[in-house]
Amino acid sequence: MPELSPRTLGIVIRVLEQMPGAAWSEKSTHVLQRDYWQRKLFQEGLPGWFRKVAPSYNYNWSIIVPLLLEGDLKAADDASVGDVLCHVALRRLVVMVLAEKDIPDVEAVRLSVQADGFTSARKELVPIDGPVSVEQEKSRLLADLKVSKLGNKEVIAVHVKDAVEHFANGKNHSAIGEARTALESAIDETVVLLEEMHNKKSGGGIGNKIPFMEETQFLSSDETSAFLAAWGFLCSGNHPGISTEEQGRIGVILSLEFLQLLIIKGKTLL
Questions:
Q1: Which of 172, 191, 159, 196 is nearest to 262 (CA)?
Q2: Which of 15, 168, 27 has its CA nearest to residue 103?
Q3: Please, what are the domains in the chain?
Q4: Which of these, 57, 85, 59, lies nearest to 72 by C-alpha position?
Q5: What are the b/e assignments for 45-76, b being 16+ CB within 10 Å?
Q6: Is the pTM value of this prediction over 0.70?
Q7: C-alpha angle with apex 141: 138 to 145, nearest 5 degrees?
Q8: Strand ranges (DSSP E) for 71-131?
Q9: Which among 106, 94, 252, 102 has a CA at the least distance from the CA of 183?
Q10: How many CA atoms lie within 13 A of 162 on its CB side?
Q11: Residue 119: helix, strand or coil by DSSP?
Q12: Which of 21, 76, 110, 270 could link 36 by a cystine bridge, Cβ 3.0 to 4.6 Å?
């Protein structure tokens, strides 16, 4: 199940602080502020316990949102409500923000939520079709990359981070480019290790290096076909019927998944 990232929630806080209730707070018109937020939270389906406790924090979203993420926001009687109820309230708060029309940062929230593996539908955050989120894949991959045998790990990690960041900012073409570069670098470094192990050269270019990994029994024939097909998708700029955003999401996830496969196989075969 995907999770909301701190990156996304930081933008959510920024939007909440641009909503009318926050402006009234600065003017100390607390009655207007209370009435605005209570009406807004009720309309958007925030639970009663949350509507009761939010005023005690003076609707300070920089405090409330992190506490919801950590499952530490308590009810008005100081009783713990637990992680599950906190996370339900947090998701509804994000949906409320996504429904705002006149705040430019809402689009940044939508893109970041998508990178986390969610979309908004019927006043709910629902996982995007498929079990994989870009953010989850990035986190798992970077942890495995750090302890792998590949060279230039720091460079590969930078490309991975940039790919996810660009995707979250709506820069889909550059996201695919960074993800493709990360995968290409990992293939290059894997082949370097295989060349040393087998005392033979692969030849230049991805078109030679991927078959070389099969020749040295690092990849099966099916895996080789899959790698070549994935590489073809990443290098092709034309995908009829697929939106630019979906191309970005699929391209980044595809690169991260195949990079992960190289690292996992490398643990035992290199």
A1: 191
A2: 15
A3: 6-127 (no CATH), 134-269 (1.20.120)
A4: 85
A5: ebeebbbebbeeeebebeebbbebbeeebeee
A6: no
A7: 135
A8: 118-121, 124-127
A9: 252
A10: 16
A11: strand
A12: 21
- Which of 123, 29, 2, 109 is CA-nearest to residue 65? 109
Token pair 């996810």: residue: 164
Q: Tens digit of pLDDT per residue, the chain (270 long)?
A: 578 999 999 999 999 999 876 655 555 566 777 888 999 999 998 999 999 999 888 899 999 999 999 999 987 777 788 888 999 899 999 999 999 988 989 999 998 888 888 888 777 888 775 545 667 678 788 888 999 999 999 999 999 999 988 888 888 889 999 999 999 999 999 999 999 999 999 988 999 999 999 999 999 999 999 999 999 999 887 788 888 888 888 888 889 889 999 999 998 887
Q: What's the token pair of residue 186? A: 């990992």
Q: Which two tokens stand for residue 44?
A: 């958007």
